[in-house]
Every structure is written in structure tokens, then in C-alpha cells.
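Audit log entry. Action: structure prediction of a protein-small molecule complex. Ligand: zinc ion. The ligand was supplied as SMILES and no pocket hint was given, so placement is left entirely to the predictor. Protonation state taken as written. Sequence taken verbatim from the request; no trimming, no tag removal. Recorded inputs:
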Amino acid sequence: MNRVVILGLALLFIAGGAAWYTGVFGGSTARIDVALTLYDTNASGNADLIRERIGEQATIWRWDRNDDGTEDIVAYDGSVSPEGQMSASGAVTAWDFGADGILDSGTVPAALQELMRSPGYATAVEAAGAGNVELVDSSLRAFVDTLRKGYDEWRLSGFQLPILGAKLPDADRLLPGARRAYRFGIHQGFDMYPGHVGVPTGYGAPVIAVKTGTVVRADTDYVEVTAEQYEEAITISQEAGTTPEAQLDLLRGRQVWVDHGNGIISRYAHLSGIAPEIVMGGTVNAGTVIAFVGNSGMESASRGGNSGAHLHFELRIDGRYLGEGMSPDEIRLLAGPLLGAGE
Ligand SMILES: [Zn+2]
């Protein structure tokens, strides 16, 4: 989903002059000059932020927020003075570039979008050369914080809880970060137990997609764990003093994972069944029934029973779980509005 395809740093090293293009700002043919400035905002040795000044018209910021060599584009519309003075007042909008151009243009002015789609712009970027590396000062650090906040707000918008009409679980032990003594580990999700989320969530209750996305895991041919497999997973966890990933995965039972793009994946676990139309690689719409509550992977299921059924739901952000390192109060403050569950 995150089709962040940038022109490529290699292109930035092609030396050359300026390019010409039919201006959308002036309505006549104008020359575009692109000037690049590179910043290493986290002192990693790599430039993770590139300021791209497009003539006198706009400033684009290309930002590699994970420092993984792939730039997630975030645009910042035009609030840098000719002297390079930055203002944090401009609207920060995350952009997602693909082969078709700007995929999510947010509030980026139409004229700027048009400019960036023009062939003359690409030529001008190629012509800009490698760019200068400049020191990072406190105003730039504040700017990166603004970018990060804007990007997170954008990519974390539009989610809901996986049970229709539910609230967040009313007990702290059902939240991420709670201890799970039986497996010597820490809980990474929200346990939607009957009697704790405001609506019925017993065995067989429907589970919905928390946002539109792509199915990246669907255990459609799941076979329930045996009592021996369950005991072994617990023994291994006890010896490790934590729950290793393989054992944790077994204990989550039948699962569906949905990729929402931009590093965000939702996981639904302990399912009793998966909706027939759910297939690997398929698209699911927000609110669609994707599966049914169960107790798969739990001790009760390994012994043939169906007690203890509940939905275990995780929201993964860049490989970490929502709520990691936070107190229950902090989790409620963050997750309530995020998941449309009030506070
Ligand atoms: Zn759980």
C-alpha cells in the first residue's frame, strides 16, 4: 500500500542545469530551478531529510522517517522564506507517491500537484545535483517533530474497533502491556471479552475490519492446537522467561491480519472461523465482517472446549504494538479516539 516511490537518490547525483516547463503558476513557460539541501536529523550518517526548493514557488520535504533508505514523502507547503527561515505554521500533509503520481494529495494546492506531475519537474530534480549537506538546528528538529505528528495523524485516521458498537475493554488487564503470567510474557493487544466491552462478543460473534486494507494472513485451513502442543508452548516460554514469537503465534490461534498501508497492520486472533470471502491478498472494506470470535490457541480449545472465547485484537505500527511502553491511562487516551471508542 505504501507505494512511496521516489525519483531515487541516484537521480539526485546526476549533474546538470535547469529545466523548462509550462508554468501553472504564471500560466506561461517558465524555468523551474530545483535546489536540494540534505539533513541528517538523527545523526545516523545518512541524510534522512531533503529540502527541495522549487524556484520561488514551493518547498517540498522528502523525509525518510525510518532511516531505511526509502523516503516517505511529506510535503510542506511553501512556508520557507528565501533566507531559509522556517515556519511551522504551514499544513503538513503526507504524500504517497506511486507510478500514477500523487496518491493522497491531502490539502496540497492543485497547482503544486500539477507542477510535480510535469515532465519538466522531474528533469529539474535530475538536474539539481547532489545537494548540500547542512547542519541540523533546533528549529529543524522541531520541524521534524511536526512532520512526524502530521504523518502519524494522517496514517492513524479512520480506524474503528473490531466489534460493532464496542467500547475499549473496561479492565486494565485486558489492554496492551498487561502481564500474562501463564506464558511469562506481556500482552500486546486488546482482549474483547463478553461483559467488558459493552456489546455481546461471545463465541461466534462477528469480527469486522477496523479499516479498509489488504488481507496479508488468513488461517483458513487452521488446525486446532493439541493439548500437547499447548503444554509445550508454555514450557518453552517458562524456560525462556518470556513468550518467544513462534510460541506466541501458536497461542494466538486462528488469525487474520490486515495491512492498512503506511506500516499499520491489524491482527485478529483466537478466531473460531473466517468469513468465506476472506482470501490472502484480497481487499476488505472497513466494517466488513471478516471472522468470528472464538478461543482457538487457548488451553480450553486444545482440550476440545469453547470456554474463554474472546477476540484478541492488535494494531501494529511499524512492527510495534499500539500501546507499547504506555500506561493503561495513556492507552485509553490514545486508543479511545483513535478507534472511535470515545474515552
Ligand atoms: Zn489477548
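Audit: result stored. The first strand starts at residue 19 and ends at 22. Confidence is low (pLDDT under 50) at residues 1-29, 84-90.
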